[in-house]
């Protein structure tokens, strides 16, 4: 895991104990984050969690109530946005309608010189090439699709050669198909330039798809900062487990510690006792409260139909949960099925249609323990 500090040359942007209050509300609450040089770093979380405010503090549109924002180790306190070497792209593309596409991109250069040995026109052509719209210079911005306009907005933000690119929900105004195409383009442009990029989105799937690391925010604070795979496989908190992807989160009482690295839990609202793997070295005893999660794709349907009511038919060593189908959503490749199990629901993925009584199984090793609290 990345663990530089302000003296580490690889740290491009650092937030050190940053808080932003609006009256009584702390929109951003004592945030510490380090974004490394060249990284694609994403702030993701539900509406109101403080993503946009965090980005505005980095851009310099807001000053922190307390704490420090640093760029390459240097405090940005009192430094206005235009002196921060950042390029910003907002949700609304905000291209100037009375200018051509080329003029819009050139506008980004207004206060900067083109790179050595290059004319303004050559720089504009280079940027249009970068965003894969080489022939758009003379076009009217309004003749472009939303995704194309957003690429022009990126070209304009990149024109002066900023150190850091800040993107605030740049795709939220686009339809799903365009969003997927644009996010691949954004990722390509970012890695071609190797530019440090901080991206804000409420869309967890988008965050997983494009980022080197993700900060999952809740109530003004990141609850986990890690690469997408880690956030998905080893959520640090219950909030992260429930926000990122479909999940089954269980809470219950430890009723047995049968072997090193394993516990048996009576889950609140559930029927069968479940066995889950736990990191060896985590001290647990009977009576502790445990919270763990199992992804729907790890809850395998072991048997369906009438027979399911009789004997659990999960492979040896697996947990077997007897449940009944409550509802199903056909998603194309798979179906997302909701099951009633005891007094609660389970989410599973199925290929074939399911109905009636089923037994689902999961390997104790596919559970991820989020926390154990002793009682
Ligand atoms: P969204 O995705 O809805 O934009 P967000 O995660 O970006 O949400 P912020 O816009 O950063 O969240 O807002 C965080 C909190 O701070 C919210 O409760 C919001 O109402 C509050 N807030 C943000 N800006 C201001 C402001 N200028 N004045 C007062 N309160 C504000």
TrEMBL record:
Which EC numbers characterise this protein's activity in its record? 7.3.2.6
Q: How does it sit in the membrane?
A: Peripheral membrane protein
Q: Which SUPFAM superfamilies match?
A: MOP-like, P-loop containing nucleoside triphosphate hydrolases
How would you classify this enzyme at the top EC level?
translocase
ATP-binding found in the keyword field: yes
**What does the record give under GO molecular function?**
ABC-type tungstate transporter activity; ATP binding; ATP hydrolysis activity
Membrane-spanning ranges:
none
Q: Where in the cell is the protein located?
A: Cell membrane
Tell me which domain of life the UniProt entry assigns to the organism this sequence originates from. Archaea
Catalysed reaction(s) here are: tungstate(in) + ATP + H2O = tungstate(out) + ADP + phosphate + H(+)
Q: Which SMART domains match?
A: AAA
What keywords does the record list, in alphabetical order? Answer: ATP-binding, Molybdenum, Nucleotide-binding, Transport
Which Gene Ontology cellular component annotation is one that this UniProt entry carries?
ATP-binding cassette (ABC) transporter complex
Q: Which residues form the ABC transporter domain?
A: 13-244
> What's this chain's function?
Part of the ABC transporter complex WtpABC involved in molybdate/tungstate import. Responsible for energy coupling to the transport system.
Q: What PANTHER family does the record tag this protein with?
A: SPERMIDINE/PUTRESCINE IMPORT ATP-BINDING PROTEIN POTA (PTHR42781), SPERMIDINE_PUTRESCINE IMPORT ATP-BINDING PROTEIN POTA (PTHR42781:SF4)
In which family does this protein belong, per the annotation?
A: Belongs to the ABC transporter superfamily. Sulfate/tungstate importer (TC 3.A.1.6) family.
Subunit record text: The complex is composed of two ATP-binding proteins (WtpC), two transmembrane proteins (WtpB) and a solute-binding protein (WtpA).
* Protein known as: Molybdate/tungstate import ATP-binding protein WtpC
Organism of this sequence: Halorubrum ruber
